[in-house]
Amino acid sequence: MRQRRVLAMLVLALLLAAVPTAAQAKGASAATISGGGSGGLPGGPIDLAGDGEPGSGTDLANLAEAAGVFALLWEDGQSGAVDAAPAATGERGPRYTITWTFPNGAGGEDKVRQSVWPYAAGGPVTYMRPGQPVLDSTTKGGWYRSADNLRQTLITLGLPDRPPLAAPAPAASATPAAGSAPAAAAPAADPAPALWPRIALGVGLLLAAAAGGALLLRRRSHPGTAAAR
Predict the structure, then answer these.
(1) Angle at 150 between CA 117 and CA 119, to 5 degrees
(2) Which of 21, 112, 184, 213 has the fewest CB atoms within 10 Å, i.e. the most exposed one?
(3) What does each of the 229 residues of the chain score in pLDDT, given as a tens digit?
(4) Short-list 26, 29, 31, 28, CA closest to 157
(5) Interior angle at CA 48, CA 44 and CA 52, nearest 5
(6) Model pTM score
(7) Does residue 202 lie in a domain region?
(8) Is 134 part of a structural domain of the chain?
(9) CA 33 to chain centroid
(10) Separation of alpha carbons 89 and 113, rounded Å
């Protein structure tokens, strides 16, 4: 009788160790990708299911890791998480929505929604609204800058094969940055030829004419003495 009780307890312990509870399992059990603008995805929403635990290597787990799901669920200071949108609205491209399903301890499911811009300039961008209920807690949420493997993963799963948007060229600064040498001034246009040489020449000619005229008048008013006989 005692041996049967010990054996039953051993079997129960093995079952509890083999079947993770909702508190232990933090991975999603399913995900649905939808959106993408007018008309949505050509083939309709994309559904994934399976083991979403980090490091399991499934499509579901790889997508969650690339999208920064765990950083936006609970983790602080995770690489990629940012306080503000890392790309302007016009530089993000079409928006998609990933709805993650997490089994909870009450035997039900928690749905967590995450917005994704896979073609954003500078790399994919995601956003998860803070405060969404999940696994007896709430999402930390926020913005996340993903690596390009998120775009590639989503294309593999059925999104359009598009390159990232090009980042706009930086606008030229109107004022030089502090500490930088001022730009060289454009060479001034050649000045018009100076007028003073012409004026001086004209005045000289007038003075010479006046002197000649005065001398002529003087000679006429004082004729020379007659020659001696």
Answers:
(1) 35
(2) 184
(3) 566 664 555 544 444 444 443 334 568 999 999 998 877 788 899 999 999 988 889 999 999 999 999 888 876 556 678 888 988 999 999 999 999 999 987 789 999 999 999 999 999 999 999 999 998 889 989 999 999 999 999 999 999 999 999 987 776 655 555 555 555 555 444 444 555 556 556 656 666 666 666 666 566 665 554 444 4
(4) 31
(5) 155
(6) 0.63
(7) no
(8) yes
(9) 24
(10) 19
What residues make up the domain containing 90? 22-157
Is residue 180 within 8 Å of 139, Cβ to Cβ?
Answer: no
**Phi-psi category of 200—alpha, beta or left, where left has phi over 0 and alpha has psi -120 to 50?**
alpha
Q: Is residue 50 domain-resident?
A: yes
Dihedral angle, C-alpha 80, 85, 88, 89, nearest 10 °: 110
Using DSSP, state whether 18 is helix, strand or coil. helix
Q: Which residue has the tokens 């609970």?
A: 74
> For residues 35 and 94, what is the distance between their CA atoms, to the nearest angstrom?
8
Given CA atoms 36, 57, 31, 134 in this order, what sign does their dihedral have? negative
Q: How would you classify the pairing of strands 137-138 and 142-145?
A: unpaired
Residue 164 domain flag: no
How far apart CA 21 and CA 17 sit, in angstroms, is 9
Structurally, the chain folds into a number of domains equal to 1
Cβ(37)–Cβ(97) below 8 Å: no
Which residue from 44, 69, 41 is spatially nearest to 54, judged by alpha carbons? Answer: 69
Q: How far apart are the first and last CA of the chain?
A: 187
Q: Are 124 and 117 in contact (CB under 8 A)?
A: yes
